[in-house]
Amino acid sequence: MRLMRVLDRELRKIWAVETAYEIQFGSDLRTDLIELRSDYHEAIGNVLGDVVSRPASMEQIIEWHRKLKNTTFENYSLGGTTVRYDHPENGCWLRAHAWVMDLVRMGASPMKIFVARDMPKLSFYSPYAEDASPGKPAKVEFEYHVAPIVVEHTDSGPRLWVLDRAVSANSDDHDGRPLTIEEWLGQLGVDAGDKESVTFYAGTAEQIHQQYIDDCRTRSWARYSNGFVFPRGRAIVLFAPMHTFTIPNLREPKEIPRDLSEADRWFRDWESDLIKMNRTAERRARQRQEEAPGASAADGSRPRPVGEPGAPGSLRPPHAMAGRTRGITVGSRWMRMRSNRRPRSRRQSSLRFPKAICLRRRRGTA
To answer: Which pLDDT value is given to residue 39?
Structure first.
């Protein structure tokens, strides 16, 4: 148990340890730990990254939202890489996955909320947009958007909150706050109370996938060459499990991750895209600092805390991307990336466990 606690509930590390244990000993780590100490069932689940589906307090939700500005993911070449939220034009599905992983590590039980609409597209004004300047946010448009949601416990019952720093943190010096469903949709130009212009679906990943496809096929919709379809002139909102990765695609109607671990493998296929977006956001942050009045440094920049947009150390040198040709647009590569994926080989791990963990080989081991 002490050995597992050092993993700090980071799911990638836990999954790696579980896989290595199974390869080395031919048995399941969780099962062996529970057989050894059945009275520690809940504690074992906690160190292995389990989440408890119970509503949280508003204070806890605000704290989760604040900590998401420091979310990172481990890249094979760059190491710990910040998940920047100041690139609003693209990458929401990647940010949402990384944020879900971090929320689970912090003990939350998140879901995801998707919203899709074309003609008109979803839109909001952001100070981080390409054409924005200090004091003048610019319009951002897209066909769909996704973010994590968590549940607050109130006296009148559960209440959903959206944790989306790309929308709520509307300036470099403003952290924003969690948004209600109505506020979040309103920011994107969707009136949640207008039943004629918005439809809500909820269920398992498979159920909402089919509901979305059926709705788009039977009503007015816009279809793109990459297989994605979006409702035309109205919005569809999906309340989805945390492992749902992206909006349904007509070309691959059954392409749904089985669980969060498989969704994370999909994320790894797109990490380089998120890194490119990080670099774009970094360039824009430097430009905003240079254009802002009262810049203190000779180069026009102002000191910022590490981890904030534009902060020193928020993105490492871009040496790892040499020779990469992958773009950042979903539509141009979605099918090619999925069809070209080969089964991953299961490499033998060099990780060796202490004999104390080899429960089936020693008796009476604590």
So the answer is: 79
